[in-house]
UniProtKB/TrEMBL annotation:
Pfam families in the record: FCD (PF07729), GntR (PF00392)
Phylogenetic placement of the source organism: Bacteria, Bacillati, Bacillota, Bacilli, Bacillales
Entry-linked PANTHER family: TRANSCRIPTIONAL REGULATOR, GNTR FAMILY, UXU OPERON TRANSCRIPTIONAL REGULATOR
HTH gntR-type domain: residues covered: 7-75
Entry protein name: FadR family transcriptional regulator
Source organism of this protein record: Cohnella herbarum
Keyword Transcription regulation part of the UniProt annotation: yes
UniProt-recorded Gene Ontology molecular function terms: DNA binding; DNA-binding transcription factor activity
Length: 225
């Protein structure tokens, strides 16, 4: 089982710097506070701040001129806002994915042991509808979400189901135009099928293996967007 990843300090710092630029309505060429000032402002070390600045340079949001200072690079406010929005969405989805791996992974393991024949049939029908929509190039986001809800239900653990319901708003972000593309996760369809086959066969190890392949595929898609 994969460990839940920690949020790195420099990722948080880069978000704070981007927020600062927006809040202060800085434009291209405007100078940011010095490294010393920002370490004090954000309460972080110089190494974390410099790593955050290197990242922001890489995505063309700031430029660092030795001996002169740190300057805003992107003149197009709309385009800059879009970059910030996409980056925040990506970070949010990756953090939520860590939680999905832990909670839904447990649901998959339990479902493989407790699923009933009627629930197996329910999942089969769901996958058939998924296949038809996918082959018809239709939106598969809601049927994908329904599949995962059925798996959680098949775990037959009311506490786990309640916890998942409590974070439904976060969870459903994956199925509500993630990064502006409703079919971003269509490539995971084969893993839905193989995971279902393992659950139906009560093969816990294989079910978790296919589940983690699905999560890895989603993670790679989010990171590459």
């Amino acid at each position: 089982m994969r460990k839940i990843q920690k949020i790195l300090v420099h990722e948080l710092v880069s978000q704070e710097i981007q927020s600062y630029i927006q809040e202060k309505e800085l434009k291209e060429g405007h100078k940011l506070p010095s490294v010393e000032e920002m370490t004090s402002m954000f309460g972080v070390g110089r190494s974390s701040l410099r790593e955050a600045l290197r990242y922001l340079e890489a995505i063309d949001i700031v430029r660092v001129e030795n001996g002169k200072g740190i300057f805003v690079r992107d003149v197009d406010t709309f385009r800059f806002s879009g970059k910030v929005k996409i980056e925040r969405e990506r970070t949010f989805l990756l953090n939520t994915l860590d939680v999905r791996r832990a909670l839904e992974g447990k649901a998959v393991a339990l479902a493989s042991k407790r699923i009933t024949e009627s629930q197996i049939k329910e999942l089969e029908l769901c996958l058939e509808e998924y296949r038809i929509l996918k082959e018809g190039d239709k939106d598969t986001s809601q049927i994908d979400l329904t599949f995962h809800r059925y798996v959680i239900k098949a775990a037959r653990n009311p506490v786990l189901e309640t916890v998942m319901d409590a974070i439904a708003g976060l969870y459903e972000k994956f199925f509500n135009e993630p990064l502006g593309n409703k079919q971003l996760f269509d490539e995971t369809y084969p893993f839905h099928r193989t995971m279902f086959d393992a659950i139906a066969a009560h093969d816990t190890g294989r079910a978790l293996e296919e589940f983690n392949k699905m999560m890895d595929c989603i993670e790679d898609k989010i990171k590459s967007y």
